[in-house]
Amino acid sequence: MNLPNKITVSRILLIPIFLIVMLYPFSWGEMKLLGAVLPVTHFVGALIFILASTTDWIDGHYARKYNLVTNLGKFLDPLADKLLVSAALIVLVELGMAASWLVIIIISREFAVTGLRAILAGEGEIVAANMLGKIKTWTQIVAISALLLHNTIFELASFPFATIALWVATFFTIWSGWDYFVKNKHVFVNSK
């Protein structure tokens, strides 16, 4: 297993740590961040989530720069993204910080595209993430980070950045999912 794939695996391994910090009833108290008050566990969870998310850029950059792109990496990288984002979104729903119906749309798209990738893999095609899929991932990361941090950057201005960011992420989630299916419709047209 090459270094980019190990970095991707580290992203997956950070998920249970994130879940424990966010869901176990630790009593670390509250903190002030840019004038807003939030539980310390949410701040630590946000840091873990952001750290895990940055590994997505690091592994991809390193793989391309040193020509270490592999089929395993093409499989693991989007899987790690989906697992991390899904775990964070489900936590946000459980904590009452995200609308469940938006999260259902996002996770449903992830299952649908994963199913499409599986069909394509059965046909011998490995589909790497395209630019629209990458934009989708980064809008999700921004939205989740803002929600985990209780919209602290915009709290003083009473601007609902985190909510708007989640709507933007949902839009790109739907658009990129549609794009994957349109570009790969040949799998369904040629099936018997």
From TrEMBL:
Domain of life: Bacteria
UniProt GO MF annotations: CDP-diacylglycerol-glycerol-3-phosphate 3-phosphatidyltransferase activity
Main location group: membrane
Transmembrane segments: 6-26, 33-52, 83-107, 164-182
Functional pathway: Lipid metabolism; Phospholipid metabolism; phosphatidylglycerol biosynthesis; phosphatidylglycerol from CDP-diacylglycerol: step 1/2
Reactions catalysed according to its record: a CDP-1,2-diacyl-sn-glycerol + sn-glycerol 3-phosphate = a 1,2-diacyl-sn-glycero-3-phospho-(1'-sn-glycero-3'-phosphate) + CMP + H(+)
Pfam families xrefs: CDP-OH_P_transf
EC number: 2.7.8.5
UniProt topology in membrane: Multi-pass membrane protein
Subcellular location: Membrane
InterPro entries the UniProt entry points to: CDP-alcohol_PTase-I, CDP-OH_P_trans, CDP-OH_PTrfase_TM_dom, CDP_ALCOHOL_P_TRANSF_CS, Phosphatidylglycerol_P_synth
Function: This protein catalyzes the committed step to the synthesis of the acidic phospholipids.
PANTHER family: CDP-DIACYLGLYCEROL--GLYCEROL-3-PHOSPHATE 3-PHOSPHATIDYLTRANSFERASE 1, CHLOROPLASTIC, CDP-DIACYLGLYCEROL--GLYCEROL-3-PHOSPHATE 3-PHOSPHATIDYLTRANSFERASE-RELATED
Family: Belongs to the CDP-alcohol phosphatidyltransferase class-I family.
Protein name: CDP-diacylglycerol--glycerol-3-phosphate 3-phosphatidyltransferase
Taxonomic lineage: Bacteria, Bacillati, Bacillota, Bacilli, Bacillales
